[in-house]
Structure formats: C-alpha cells, structure tokens
C-alpha cells in the first residue's frame, strides 16, 4: 500500500512539475486509481489526466509513459458530452517487461468528470482478441 501511495505522490508531483513549466496550465487535473481486468499488464494502476475544456488540450501521464518518455505526453482529446471526455494516445516502441522486444500500444481513456471515474482500453500492435481494459475512480486535483 505504501509503495502505491509513494508512486501516486510521485506521479502527481512529476506531472504537476511538468505542467508548471508549461506556458499554459490545464484547467482540470485528475489522478485515477485503475483496476485492470487484464492479467498481462499494459493497464496502469494509476493515471494522471488533465484537460482544458476551452482549448480542447489534454495530457496524460502514468508509469508506462514515465518509463518510455519520462514526461507527460499530449493526448488527443474529444468531447463526448459535457461530462465525458475521451483521451487517446499511443506509446511507440514500448518495451516488454518480461521478454525481449517491444510493441506500439494505443490507449483510450474515457473520463467521466461528473462521476469521477475512468474507463481505459489498450491495444498493442499484433494483438489478437479484445482490447485490454480497466476502470477506476478519480479524484480531482485541487488547485493551490
């Protein structure tokens, strides 16, 4: 539990530090704890999502992004309704943790800002079958 809490704090601080360096801080930030329905990974246990409703900008950060890029990445943000926001991003050349090689992974996260929840799916190149999925609860980061 402590390890997960330390990771969550590290995730939030890293993402917030990166945002502080950017010219424009996004208006809404969320930290989400996700339960994966996959037994093979690729769905992060914690994820940071940020959006700006006016500009349509979105960013995302999790342990996989940290491992591959070391920084937040931009997500394609789509508005499905006032409360539903769809984030799409891709990890290029993501390395497997249990074997040699790498793959590209396409992600989609649907954030429900009213219910403070998220649904995530991931598909990696060459994958047969259904997408890997997870869902969780989110907490809005309070501005200081």
Would you kindly provide a written description of the structure presented here, covering whatever features stand out?
By secondary structure, the protein is α+β, with helices and mostly antiparallel strands. The protein has one domain: Lipocalin. The protein is built from two helices and eight strands, in the order H-E-E-E-H-E-E-E-E-E. It has helices at 2-21, 63-68; strands at 28-36, 46-52, 57-62, 73-79, 84-95, 102-112, 117-124, 132-140. It has an eight-stranded antiparallel barrel with strand order 1-2-3-4-5-6-7-8. The longest helix has 20 residues, at 2-21.
Helix content: 10-25%
Structural class: alpha+beta
Low-confidence stretches: 1-9, 19-23
State the strand order across the main sheet. Answer: 1-2-3-4-5-6-7-8
Strand content: over 45%
Average pLDDT score:
84
Keywords: Signal
């Amino acid at each position: 539990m402590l390890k997960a809490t330390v990771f969550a704090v590290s995730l939030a601080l890293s993402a917030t530090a990166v945002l502080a360096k950017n010219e424009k801080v996004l208006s809404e930030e969320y930290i989400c704890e996700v339960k994966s329905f996959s037994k093979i990974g690729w769905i992060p246990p914690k994820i940071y999502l940020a959006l700006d409703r006016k500009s349509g900008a979105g960013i995302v950060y999790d342990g996989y992004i940290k491992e591959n890029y070391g920084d937040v990445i931009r997500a394609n943000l789509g508005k499905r309704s006032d409360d539903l926001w769809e984030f799409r991003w891709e990890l290029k050349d993501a390395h497997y943790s249990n074997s040699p090689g790498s793959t590209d992974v396409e992600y989609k996260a649907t954030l429900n800002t009213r219910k403070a929840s998220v649904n995530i799916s991931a598909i990696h190149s060459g994958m047969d079958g259904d997408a890997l999925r997870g869902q969780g609860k989110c907490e809005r980061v309070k501005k200081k």
